[in-house]
Specification:
Layout lengths: L1 H50 L7 H12 L17
C-alpha cells in the first residue's frame, strides 16, 4: 500500500512539474507577441518616414495650430485646416 502512495506522489510531482513548465512557456508568449508587434510598428514607421520624409498635405498647418494651442490661443483657427476642432 505504501508503494502505491509513493507512486501516486511521484505521479503528482511529475504532473505538477509538467504544469509548471507549461506555465513558463505560456508566460513567454505575451512578451514574444509584444516584441513582434513593436518590431512591425518600427518597420512600418521606418518605411513611412522613408517614403514621406516631410509633412504631407495639411500636416504643416496642424503643427502651426498645435503651437497656437500650446500658447493658450484656443480660439484661433488656421483657415487651411479642414478638420473641425476636437476630431
Amino acid at each position: 500500500m505504501s508503494e502505491s502512495i509513493l507512486e501516486m506522489e511521484d505521479g503528482l510531482q511529475r504532473a505538477n512539474k509538467r504544469k509548471m513548465e507549461d506555465l513558463r512557456k505560456n508566460a513567454q508568449s505575451p512578451f514574444l507577441a509584444w516584441a513582434i508587434i513593436l518590431g512591425l510598428v518600427a518597420l512600418w514607421h521606418t518605411h513611412i518616414e522613408t517614403v514621406v520624409p516631410r509633412p504631407y498635405l495639411d500636416e504643416f498647418f496642424h503643427v502651426q495650430q498645435a503651437e497656437l494651442y500650446l500658447q493658450g490661443r484656443y480660439f484661433e483657427w488656421h483657415p487651411k485646416i479642414t478638420t473641425p476642432p476636437g476630431l
